[in-house]
Amino acid sequence: MSSASERQARRVQRYYRWLDGISFYRERRAAGEAVHPVHRALADPEGGPPSPLVIHRLMLEGVTLPEAPRVLDAGCGYGATMLDLAPRLGGDWTGLTLSPEQAARGNAALARAGLAERVRVQVQSYDAPPAGPFDLIYGIESLIHSADPAATLTGLARQLSPGGHLLVVDDMPEPGLPPEPAERLAQFKRYWRCPVAPDRAGWITALRASGLDLVGERDLNPLLQVRGMAQVAPRLAEVRNRSWLARLLGLGVRAEAEIGGLLLESLQTEGWVHYRLLVARKPA
């Protein structure tokens, strides 16, 4: 792992330590959830209610897995995706997070579900992944934190089995943004600790450079539950005004996370950022 990747891993680890420590994600945990998915809800194309679990079904459409797959979740948060999919798909699952709090809560939830023998959360960077081969590797809203996405994908692709799939689900800005949305994007990247945030073409180029074939993609923006700038502006102003001193002192991580999320909503509503799924396959 490069020195830049190591520095970024420490930066992201501090970020989530703050958010986990002040219960930012616990507040967003729905009643009855073992652990909350740290990714956004989508409208269900099949008519069900909007849910963070919808992406789990959509990302696996057309992906063929063996009877007992070996799976790597590259940036698993509290392990909610594995908790949802592993009971249905079987196999052996490993989730990676930089947050000890997320790992502890995720492993406790997996143990309560009776999955601990074959599903686990490890405190480990996806830039130094465990040895494969894996039949499926995915990153949901996690790979955007990479300091070098091309190197990250190359490292993950090495651990894929022949015929295995690598899925990227993330926010991808449009190229050539005008100055005003470009400034909002820069603020989002800074507040969410996303130094590069490639566009669609950048991700596809990196996937192909890692030896993978792009076999599917989907623009998920039509399924997002987001608001435009006019709707988020009052809350944005409130959080900025209330937190300016904390942010100046480096103590405003919670406020930064919320500001970044509000800015991202506005960019998605206006079409400057698209939430996309890319499906790549390693040649057999």
Order of helices and strands: HHEHEHEEHEHHEHHE
| Strand arrangement in the largest pleated sheet | 3-2-1-4-5-7-6
Number of strands: 7
Q: What is the SS-derived class?
A: alpha/beta
* First and last CA, distance: 27 Å
Shape: globular
Please tell me how large the radius of gyration is.
Answer: 18 Å
Assembly form of the protein:
single chain
Q: Percent range for helical residues?
A: 40-55%
Main sheet, how many strands, which sense, barrel?
7 strands, mixed
Counting DSSP H or I runs of 4 or more residues, the number of helices is 9
What are the low-pLDDT stretches, counting only 5+ consecutive residues below 50?
Answer: none
* Beta-strand share of residues: 15-25%
Mean pLDDT equals 91
How do the strands and helices of this protein lay out in sequence?
Layout: H1 3-21, H2 54-59, E1 70-74, H3 80-89, E2 92-97, H4 100-112, E3 119-123, E4 134-140, H5 149-158, E5 160-173, H6 179-191, H7 200-209, E6 213-219, H8 229-248, H9 253-269, E7 273-281
Parallel strand pairs: 1-2, 1-4, 2-3, 4-5
Antiparallel strand pairs: 5-7, 6-7
Helix pairs in contact: 5-7, 6-9, 8-9
Structure report:
- It contains nine helices and seven strands, in the order ααβαβαββαβααβααβ.
- The chain has a seven-stranded mixed beta sheet.
- The model has no long low-confidence stretch (mean pLDDT 91).
- The two termini are 27 Å apart.
- 42% of the residues lie in helices and 19% in strands.
- α8 runs antiparallel to α9 (253-269).
